[in-house]
Amino acid sequence: MARPRKSENTKEALLETGTAMLASQGYHGTGIKQVLDAVGVPKGSFYNYFPSKEAFVASIIHYYGEQIDAELAQTKINLVQAPGLIQLWCSFQNRIQYKVKAGQSCACLLGAMSAEVAQASPLCRKAIESVEHRWLENLRSILHLAQDQGDLRSDIPANSLATLCYSVWQGSILQYQVSGDPNDLLRQLRTFFSTLVTQQGAQTLSSIETYRQDIHFEK
User: Fold this and answer.
1) How many CB atoms lie within 10 A of CB 65?
2) Residues 155-181: what's their mean pLDDT?
């Protein structure tokens, strides 16, 4: 396989650094110069990669979406034999664990960008919608599996549950940003799942600790 060109490495570094800064500082708190200085790229070179800050942020959103896709895919591979309810829990737990271990904020870039730029930037809004759609489809698939296995109530369609689950996640992120305690996210999610599980699902949910140590993501 051919080695990536330097320009490809630089673009990747800009996206990675931009993702971290946008998640922690927001759109208006992150300047292009901050990102360039952190990566060590001259200001004039930025436009070799992105035509504008708006295009840069849209690319970051897609980049962030690719990370989510990869994490969800890895969760399914690692837990292919586990109940769907456990896969669902771990898909969120692992994101929190990874961020904490990396010393990063658990804030969700999609939520932050939805609040700041979705209405003002059609380009960014389209990127957010694309990533959200894929995330919701993944959630729907896992939720449907958990319903089929008898762990989740089946009177609410999986599509509706996926949207609700995503909304609870984003709302919990807002509370986390105030408290700064990642455990708040886990507590909120655990409470939410507890309202949806069947009697069988309650037993499955109690076995979470069995799977907690099995999941590791490589950066």
Assistant:
1) 20
2) 93
